[in-house]
């Protein structure tokens, strides 16, 4: 069959002139495990054109791959099918809401077939399309011959891989929509693609219109994590907490020029403001002037977020784009032995010291038992005493060292599963054979799990054979999809200029960063980012003067790998002047990241909270403004 190009697949689906048309999209899931109530909320109250879901992360792919190895019909988000789509199919059909989701995981065909079966049970006529082509594990040997290596560590491909999936873009999804599909199921795609594709389809934009592509990608990035842009995970949590039990999920209204508004359904909790949306903008990005996606390289440095209804609605504009590169990012997962973790409470006088002594004794004893069996020692261990701010490293408040109640977490890794089974059996005896006050073994005897590591690399886009399968009543039809042509980058305008650093003089006192800024942190493998947004534009110089990359490396040094002398090279700072923000990227900061890490915070979710305590020298004028604000709110 002749390959379909997305340019020919895009079409206008409304008689309304493109200049007046608005496409309304709601996002009901930010990860596999998010609440299943969001979809019903958005369908009931959202008046949507499209409902999108994001389920996949690197670790999710490895979990689904393991499920498929046990059952060829598994490997997708089954709760999406049974608990979300099943109950909502009649209303989705009645309202004509189209659904796009990457819930297909490593088995999108099986996911689509399960939805098709539900539709037949309910006598609902439904057109379902599947996007194929992200699974490149069969080509691993070719990639090894080509010398493809890990993009961060330069390591060669591991001998054994559990999964290997390319982050596809929007063209194949747009081609699927052009078939008239009511539901589009994908495997691994970039999170924003489920939003970019319907906008390309509805507006008929050119795939070389990189500014609009960047705006569409920004729209997808803002809502891809669900309630994180509507007040969830927000620095000023007290402004939102009364609505936590009924959090509103995000809705975007996108216009033909690419600008969009962010809101949430009426009568729901949360809030939509400059700050909540700005925090999501800086979430899990690297260089904001070169946010690389398969369809466009985005420049978010000049993005503007403007409130048009207090705590209810903002408009977002100003993203710029340029031509994408020739490669897809691929995330692979590979097994690296096994891991085990246990947590228990220690109470009483000198609880922290007792907790550490017991944990160290358990590890010493089991190491000795390993040696007696001619087994190797642990490949990695961690002891974290929770309740004394150990995750803060040297920034912890020392008065907590005398706490009378702590939880100790022991994490360990070993190449042999049997060794960690032995470890798990040697914990309980500490309650009667070691220091007093041990209780509350969390979850009972701990389980042993495969230790899965992430392998990220770049492969040529030509390595992926994109296609769309349309499920039919008697047989399925599959057609190939070709990628759109790419414009020459040299013809495009440069998007940003560096911000000059200025020293701050006349400081009179220091205040914690949280008085001056909001912050949000996230992860990509073993890399964490911390975005910092000034509460007022005039406060940004004080923040920039104090929060240098070197200062952040020193303050967060306890999270960074390697010798102290090299840690400053692992932190990079970027500017987002459009929203008065800074973004810090911390490499080798998560102990391997994901399920490979033994830490209590393997994804750096609390890093932003730690940095908010950083002391910032301020001028007398800023100090006076802060004092006035405090007296007003008191």
UniProtKB/TrEMBL annotation:
> For this UniProt entry, which residues form the secretion signal?
none
Q: Where is the Acyclic terpene utilisation N-terminal domain?
A: 23-469
Q: Which InterPro entries match?
A: AtuA-like_ferredoxin_dom (IPR056362), AtuA_N (IPR010839)
Residue span, AtuA-like ferredoxin-fold domain = 511-616
Its name, as the record gives it, is DUF1446 domain-containing protein
Task: Give the species.
Answer: Allohahella marinimesophila
Record lineage: Bacteria, Pseudomonadati, Pseudomonadota, Gammaproteobacteria, Oceanospirillales
């Amino acid at each position: 069959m002749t390959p379909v190009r997305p340019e020919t697949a895009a079409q206008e689906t409304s008689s309304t002139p493109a200049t007046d048309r608005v496409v309304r999209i709601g996002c009901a899931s930010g990860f596999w495990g998010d609440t299943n109530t969001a979809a019903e909320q958005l369908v009931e109250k959202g008046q949507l054109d499209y409902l999108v879901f994001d389920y996949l992360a690197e670790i999710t792919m490895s979990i689904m791959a393991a499920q498929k190895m046990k059952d060829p019909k598994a490997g997708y988000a089954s709760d999406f099918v049974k608990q979300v789509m099943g109950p909502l199919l009649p209303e989705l059909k009645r309202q004509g809401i189209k659904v796009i989701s990457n819930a297909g995981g490593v088995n999108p065909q099986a996911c689509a077939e399960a939805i098709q079966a539900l539709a037949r049970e309910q006598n609902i006529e439904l057109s379902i399309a599947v996007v194929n082509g992200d699974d490149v594990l069969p080509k691993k040997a070719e990639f090894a011959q080509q010398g493809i290596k890990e993009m961060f560590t330069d390591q060669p491909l591991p001998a054994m891989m559990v999964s290997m999936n390319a982050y596809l873009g929007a063209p194949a999804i747009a081609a699927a929509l052009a078939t008239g599909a009511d539901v589009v199921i994908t495997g691994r795609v970039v999170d924003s693609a489920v939003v970019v594709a319907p906008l390309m389809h509805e507006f008929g934009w050119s795939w070389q219109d990189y500014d609009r592509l960047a705006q569409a990608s920004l729209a997808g990035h803002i809502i891809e994590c669900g309630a994180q842009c509507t007040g969830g995970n927000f620095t000023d949590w007290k402004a939102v907490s009364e609505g936590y039990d009924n959090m509103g999920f995000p809705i975007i209204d996108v216009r033909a020029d690419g600008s969009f508004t962010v809101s949430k359904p009426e009568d729901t909790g949360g809030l939509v403001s400059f700050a909540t949306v700005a925090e999501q903008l800086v979430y899990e990005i690297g260089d904001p002037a070169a946010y690389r996606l398969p369809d466009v390289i985005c420049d978010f440095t000049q993005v503007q977020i403007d409130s048009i209804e207090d705590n209810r609605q903002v408009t977002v504009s100003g993203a710029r784009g340029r031509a994408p590169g020739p490669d897809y990012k691929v995330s692979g997962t590979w097994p690296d032995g096994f891991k085990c973790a246990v947590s228990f409470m220690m109470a009483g006088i000198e609880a922290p010291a007792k907790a550490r002594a017991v944990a160290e004794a358990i590890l010493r004893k089991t190491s000795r038992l390993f040696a007696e069996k001619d087994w190797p020692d642990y490949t990695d261990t961690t002891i974290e005493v929770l309740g004394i701010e150990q995750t803060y490293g040297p920034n912890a408040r020392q008065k907590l060292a005398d706490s009378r109640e702590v939880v100790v977490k022991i994490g360990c890794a070993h190449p042999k599963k049997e060794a960690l089974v032995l470890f798990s059996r040697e914990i309980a005896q500490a309650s009667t054979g070691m220091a007093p006050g041990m209780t509350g073994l969390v979850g009972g005897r701990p389980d042993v799990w495969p230790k899965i590591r992430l392998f990220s690399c770049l492969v040529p886009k030509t390595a992926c054979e994109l296609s769309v399968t349309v499920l039919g009543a008697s047989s399925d039809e599959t057609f190939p999809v070709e990628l759109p042509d790419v414009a020459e980058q040299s013809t495009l305008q440069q998007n940003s200029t560096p911000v000059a650093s200025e020293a701050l003089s006349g400081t009179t006192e220091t205040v914690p960063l949280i008085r001056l800024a909001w912050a949000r942190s996230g992860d990509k493998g073993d890399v964490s980012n911390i975005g910092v947004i000034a509460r007022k534009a005039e406060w940004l110089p004080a923040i920039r003067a104090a929060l240098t990359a070197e200062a952040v490396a020193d303050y967060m040094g306890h999270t960074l790998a390697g010798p102290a002398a090299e840690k400053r090279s692992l932190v990079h700072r970027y500017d987002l002047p459009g929203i008065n923000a800074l973004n810090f990227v911390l490499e080798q900061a998560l102990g391997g990241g994901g399920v490979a890490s033994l830490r209590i915070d393997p994804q750096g979710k609390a890093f932003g909270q730690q940095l908010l305590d950083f002391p910032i020298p301020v001028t007398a004028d800023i100090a006076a403004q802060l004092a006035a604000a405090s007296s007003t709110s008191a």
